Amino acid sequence: MSLISAKEILDDANKNLYAVGAFNVNNMEFLQAVFLAAESEKSPIIIAASEGAIKYAGPDMLFSMTKALSDTYPNIPVALHLDHGSNLNAVMVAIKAGFTSVMIDASHFPFEENLKITKQVVSICHPLGISVEAELGRLKGVEDNVSVAERDAVLVNPKEANDFVASSNIDFLAPAIGTSHGAFKFKGEAKLDFERLRKVKELTGIPLVLHGASSVPEAASKKFEEFGGDLKGAKGVPFDVLKDAIKFGINKVNTDTDLRISFLAKVRESIANDKSQIDPRKIFGPAKDYVIEIIKERMRVLGSSNRI
Ligand code: G3H
Ligand code: 13P
Ligand code: ZN
Predict the structure, then answer these.
(1) CB–CB of 206/171 below 8 Å?
(2) Can 256 be counted among the known catalytic residues?
(3) How far is CA 163 from each of CA 107, 170, 268, rounded to the nearest angstrom?
């Protein structure tokens, strides 16, 4: 199957109240893991590549590997998406390589500047059938005891979100509601601002994206630490919180950290248990299999299993 835009995938998720995983990849093993999990779970997928991933693997390599796997598994709906594109140049590199979806992340600029850059990206992408994601607010955890003004400074403003969507014509929006990237998301209880999320959904109606959505799975984290790693204080978004977020309108769930932790936990274990092993395939193979199980579990939590 040829790659499709993420809009096609997410419009169905929005209509039928489930979410699709956007899984970050940097190399062949992670890409294979996402496709093999999707094949097993019968789930659509979004392959996410950051600017760092593009720098590491090369845009053409990422596209070619994704296309090759999509041809191998023609029944899986798949989009290749630029994650956190920081400027027009990054977007153009992705478009030129054949990406079918982009995120322009100008959320660190004031509202008007973010809107201006995003509109420019939409005007280039939409005629090409490429979907566009943008972000509002900052990806930062917010403690319970901070002032309303502090919360407002970090999290999405629903009225602004409505104006932004109407004016930019983006296909899906990432509203900041209290998550952050990486393995250390919350000091205390994992709490997201569902009231803001509910309002953004009610006003805009478009598919919404949860960045920083990894759950930091306990078994993988334990294994990581058991074999010499340090993840003290790591905390992710628990499955029940993810499920609530989906009920309130999230349709795309970005996941990178969980794949990183699980892959490297298994690499650590294999290396520790087989000290004379010099064949990388004997180390990366089991790590890939472990990542597949983590992805399959997430697909079931998101409700994207058995959608194809
Ligand atoms: O949103 C960030 C993703 O986890 C990608 O991370 O920029 O290190 O590739 P990266
Ligand atoms: P995690 O760090 O929680 O996996 O978030 C990834 C992400 O948001 C990629 O855009
Ligand atoms: Zn992100």
Answers:
(1) yes
(2) no
(3) 15, 11, 48
The CATH fold of domain 6-302: TIM Barrel (3.20.20)
What's the pTM value of the predicted model, to 2 decimals?
0.97
Q: What is the mean pLDDT of residues 4-21?
A: 98
H or E stretch covering 292: helix 280-302
Ligand 1 atom 8, closest CA:
52
- Identify the active-site residue in 12, 83, 105, 258: 83
d(CA 16, CA 207): 11
Q: Which long-range contacts (CB under 8 A, 24 or more apart) does 271-279 make?
A: 271/227, 272/227, 272/228
Distances 54 to 62, 81, 99, 300 between C-alpha atoms, Å:
7, 11, 11, 29
pLDDT by residue (tens digit) across 32-43? Answer: 999 999 999 999
CA-proximal residue: ligand 2, atom 3 (nearest): 212
CA distance 237 to 139: 14
Which residue's CA is the closest to the ligand 2 atom numbered 5? Answer: 212
Phi, psi of 181 (to 5 degrees): -70, 160
Neighbours of ion ligand 3 (CB under 5 A): 211, 254
Q: How far is the CA of 50 from the centre of ligand 1 (A)?
A: 6
How many angstroms does the Cα of residue 21 sit away from the middle of ligand 3?
12
The domain locations on the chain are 6-302
Place of tokens 């090369």: 58
